[in-house]
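Lecture notes, structural biology module. Today: joint structure prediction for complexes of two components.
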Amino acid sequence: GENVEQHPSTLSVQEGDSAVIKCTYSDSASNYFPWYKQELGKRPQLIIDIRSNVGEKKDQRIAVTLNKTAKHFSLHITETQPEDSAVYFCAASIKTGNQFYFGTGTSLTVIP
Amino acid sequence: DAGITQSPRHKVTETGTPVTLRCHQTENHRYMYWYRQDPGHGLRLIHYSYGVKDTDKGEVSDGYSVSRSKTEDFLLTLESATSSQTSVYFCAISAGTGAFGIYFGEGSWLTVV
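The predicted structure, tokenised, for the full assembly:
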């Protein structure tokens, strides 16, 4: 099956700085890459996604990039705010069977 | 939020007892999933379903079984609970193949003592 690796496991940034979280995947058949934000005690929530035919996608302060050749994708958060503090998960999905495989998460702390 | 309801939300049970967690959706989505979440492991797929009575194993299926007799309900059963199954269990749903997001329920906190 698919193997998704995520780095770093923890990340601390000053408010206003940028944060970058990186993921790699193993299965070239993966074609959809969502990112989730999970606040303490809550469910993971989809914040942005990217499809395999797109190299970059941006939504306000959040952007994702995808390098299919290298099999890696990244989440970029600019102008970080304290409310961005949470655990972020990347995932990869293979169309066949619609299975989703998750990274192990990155705990982001934004220091005011 | 997607119409996903999990029950029970919290449960404490004894080792060796059977436990069933229920997931109910109102979105009429084809795909349903059960994940467990543990520190350091992220979200790991237990079982998933791609239609009524159509299910398959995920990466950590040992000790778990599932059933889906109706589109809206997906049940996860621990036949004989063990302490290693203490975890947070999330049900999730998805509309289709490939480029559609997966949406999670609120989670069920299970403690096996």
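Point to remember: The mean pLDDT of chain A is 94.
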